[in-house]
């Protein structure tokens, strides 16, 4: 815990040198935006590789900033474990500015997806979509108006084996319009094609990512239809 807070403090004092000579009011605001500690960016990249989220979920991951998220104050930290009762309500999510992009005029789309549904041994329902937020901006932009495009759907792992619940941030190009997608509605979130959506939408990135692990307890799995140890209990035909 102490070392995590220490890392946050280091991240917060690393500022954007590139924008430091900006003159207009808008750009002036951007100068106060922190960028991520390169060590934290490298740690996220390494964690995605060792957890095999590359290539299971995304073909590559070359972030240039970090995304912070928590459920009721408990931080998501590159693969730590949560329980179903801890994740009933939407997590708070924020991210630091990218170097070389004006935080005040760049919008981002944030996803929470599960590549391990209904269980990691046979992920026939993946990607399972839990949340899309559009028009998000780095946390230094206090006047932003993000929109819950696909409202949060709480997590329903059908295995004791943990799923890798993954948060990804993508940069929206100028004049971005999100695609029309029936899967924004809660209840029809299975087999969401994250990479297909990103390509269709023209999103750039991911520029940041984080993830946590969660499965059902053995006790809860025993009384949940189609839940098994490894997630092979869901009917596939
Ligand atoms: C960013 O999002 C805000 C709030 O929804 C919107 O008003 C603004 O036009 C967007 N900017 C760009 C560059 O897309
Ligand atoms: C569980 O599996 C059965 C068939 O084995 C199926 O009829 C049922 O819809 C499934 N229930 C859930 C909640 O997935």
Automatic annotation (TrEMBL):
Residues 1-20 form the signal peptide. One of its GO terms (biological process) is regulation of proteolysis. InterPro entries: PEBP (IPR008914), PEBP-like_sf (IPR036610), PEBP_euk (IPR035810). One of its GO terms (molecular function) is phospholipid binding. The keyword Signal applies. Gene3D superfamilies: PEBP-like. Keywords: Signal. This is PEBP-like protein.
């Amino acid at each position: 815990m102490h070392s995590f807070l220490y890392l946050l403090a280091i991240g917060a004092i690393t500022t954007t040198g590139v924008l430091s000579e900006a003159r207009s009011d808008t750009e002036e605001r951007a100068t106060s935006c922190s960028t991520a500690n390169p060590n934290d960016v490298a740690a996220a990249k390494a964690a995605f590789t060792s957890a095999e989220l590359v290539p299971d979920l995304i073909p590559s991951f070359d972030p240039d900033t970090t995304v912070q998220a928590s459920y009721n104050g408990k931080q998501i930290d590159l693969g730590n474990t949560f329980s179903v009762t801890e994740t009933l309500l939407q997590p708070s999510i924020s991210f630091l500015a990218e170097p070389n992009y004006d935080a005040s005029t760049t919008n981002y789309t944030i996803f929470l997806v599960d590549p391990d549904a209904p269980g990691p041994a046979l992920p026939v329902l993946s990607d399972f979509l839990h949340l899309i937020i559009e028009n998000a901006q780095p946390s230094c932009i206090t006047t932003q108006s993000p929109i819950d495009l696909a409202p949060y759907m709480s997590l329903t792992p059908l295995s004791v084996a943990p799923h890798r619940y993954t948060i990804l941030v993508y940069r929206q190009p100028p004049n971005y319009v999100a695609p029309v997608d029936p899967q924004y509605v809660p209840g029809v979130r299975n087999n969401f094609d994250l990479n297909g959506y990103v390509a269709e939408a023209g999103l750039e990135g991911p520029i940041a990512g984080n993830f946590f692990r969660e499965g059902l307890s053995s006790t809860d799995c025993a009384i949940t239809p189609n839940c098994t140890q490894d997630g092979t209990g869901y009917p596939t035909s």
